[in-house]
Write a structure and sequence with these properties.
Aminopeptidase; N-acetyltransferase domain-containing protein; Acyl_CoA_acyltransferase; GNAT_YJDJ; Gcn5-rel_NAT; five-stranded mixed sheet
Length: 93
Amino acid sequence: MLKSIQHNPESHRFEVHLEGLNAYMSYVLTEDVIEYNHTIVPKALGGRGIGSELVKYGLAYARVNHLAVIPSCSFVAAYIQKHPEFQDLLVDQ
């Protein structure tokens, strides 16, 4: 896992700063539900698994804080589909 991922609660996102660029996963938090709505990784940082690390970090945050997850970002949804160990976090719909 990237050691430089930081939670920025004021901006509602998890961020990593590499090579002068910013990658992040943003969220909306309501009561006991966190909705991951965007994952942004600049092209220059692409192909290194940074997006996956951001998602893994965000899902770990949800688990530790007993939050249900809504993956409205397609990248987050695809990650959860490929990693069934996180499917228990999904909001019952």
